[in-house]
Amino acid sequence: MTEQDIPARLVELLTAEQESLGAAWVETVSRTLRGRISLAELDRELRELYAALVEGLRGGGLDWQGDAFAEARALLAELSRTRARQGFTPTETATSVLAGKDVLAPSEETSAADIRAYLQLSKLIDALGLFTLEVYAKTREEIISAQAEQLMELSTPVVKLWEGVVAVPLVGTLDSARTQVVMEKLLQALVDTGSDQAIIDITGVPAVDTEVAQHLLKTVVAARLMGAECIISGIRPQIAQTIVALGIQFGDIVTKSSLADALKHALRRGDADVVRPGGRA
Fold first, then answer.
1. Is residue 171 within 8 Å of residue 204, measured between CB atoms?
2. Helix (H, G, I), strand (E, B), or coil: what is residue 13?
3. From CA 205, how far away is CA 185, in angstroms rounded?
4. Within 10 Å of residue 189's Cβ, how many Cβ atoms?
5. 229-233 and 197-204 beta bridge pairing
């Protein structure tokens, strides 16, 4: 059997036992996934993949990157993305493809020519398995990136404290990416609420260094360009000492030790009427 004859022989072998081999493939993978996906869904996925594999061999030989295997690659990409979103591990995902090698493995009665054909099929399945892992890894990266963006959004809320006063309570490290999110949300909140006073509270920021200070100053400048004045609150004694030691200058930016002090200052600056308990102004 020549190299050119191998794809045709594989198509013949796989077509002759398509029903039994497909069922064995589904059963092998279902044991690995331990019921985390319905048997009907798994049966549909793998039988479609089996058929696409046969068609690829029939139309494109052993070149899995060729046009003949486009359907097989599309099915594998969808399988990988689905498994990644469902929380399956890379091993569980790759097994859905690589289990085909065990199912299609030759027996003692297999001829030498067919064993040679199987070895070529094994290499093809390995390549498709690696393709599956690549798509899985890319999808997981996209999911993690999206989750990180969502967490960043949740960790930088803009709160309306009073008429004309909004606050951004920051918790955790302030880096360039997060500064951009803070700017965007703060500026949008200033527009939405018509506020002209903004409090940036850093009580939850563990440390302030030169880089963090620069990020804060950029946010203040951006707010000022929108016509709002900023107050930085949460300047604890340790942070104050660090700022002095580093020689960081906040210029004419008002700083307060607590959010409450910052709110009082904002209300006085805006000539707001503060109603005390009991109805006294």
1. yes
2. helix
3. 18
4. 21
5. parallel
Burial 245-257 (b: 16+ CB within 10 A, else e): eeebeeeebbbbe
Q: Which of 159, 172, 244, 260 is nearest to 212 (CA)?
A: 172
Tokens representing 99? 């289990």
* 233 CB-contact burial (10 Å; exposed 0-12 / middle 13-18 / buried 19+): buried
Q: Check pLDDT > 80 for residue 44.
A: yes
Residue of 18, 52, 32, 14 whose CA lies nearest to 95: 32
Q: Structure tokens of 120?
A: 């070529």
Q: Which residue's structure tokens are 């690829």?
A: 56
Tokens representing 165?
């006063």
With contact defined as beta carbons under 8 Å apart, do 6 and 120 qualify? Answer: yes
Summarize pLDDT for 237-263 with one digit per residue, the tens.
888 888 888 888 888 889 898 999 999
List pLDDT tens digits, range 49-75: 999 999 999 987 889 999 999 999 999
pTM: 0.60
Which ranges constitute the DSSP H helices of 109-254?
A: 112-154, 176-193, 210-225, 237-246
End-to-end CA separation in angstroms for the chain:
99
Kind of pairing, strands 159-162 and 229-233?
unpaired
pLDDT digits (tens, 9 = 90+) for 145-197: 877 776 665 567 888 888 899 998 888 777 777 778 888 888 899 999 999 99
- Which pLDDT does position 155 carry in this prediction? 61
Taken as a whole, the chain contains a residue count of: 281
Strands 254-256 and 197-204: unpaired
| Residues whose CB falls within 8 Å of the CB of residue 223, separated by 6 or more in sequence, listed in order | 186, 187, 190, 198, 229, 230
